[in-house]
Amino acid sequence: MRKFLAAATCAVVFSLGFVNTVRAENFAVYYIDMQKIINESPQGKKAKQELESKIKAAESKLKKLADEINALKKELSSPLFNDSTKKKKENELQMKIMEFRQLKQESEQMVAELQKKLTAKIVEDVFKVVAKYRKEHHLPMVVERNEGGIIAADPKYDITDKILKVFSKQGK
Fold this sequence. Notes:
Radius of gyration: 30 Å
Helix content: over 70%
Distance between the termini: 72 Å
Structural class: mainly alpha
């Protein structure tokens, strides 16, 4: 009886394994490259321009402040100042340096937050396009190439260009 149960159990396990193998061969995992979509879509290019504009504005403010700091340093090297005036200039320099550091930190934080916000919006919109495309084309699964841990894949399962085309039409 034990031999029969062991044989029956083995037969069931092997047959289940065979069924799963057959199903797995009919199953395909499609993928997209989100970074490519972000970089090449009109929405991504617009977000990049907005971000670069904010970065340039922040850099301009920082450069102006750095120039003021350098001018103060130059003034301080002059032997013409009395101790009282020199002390005032040193305090002014320290205040400008603190202002510069604070502005730099605030600018970096603002840029990081804006980048995160703009990217999140694009990713959210791309996910909607992918979900609709997957449903319309009866695809079993779509993953993101970089986040999905894909090391190598058959390019025939890459739907990035198709999604990019659909997503780009929405941005116009």
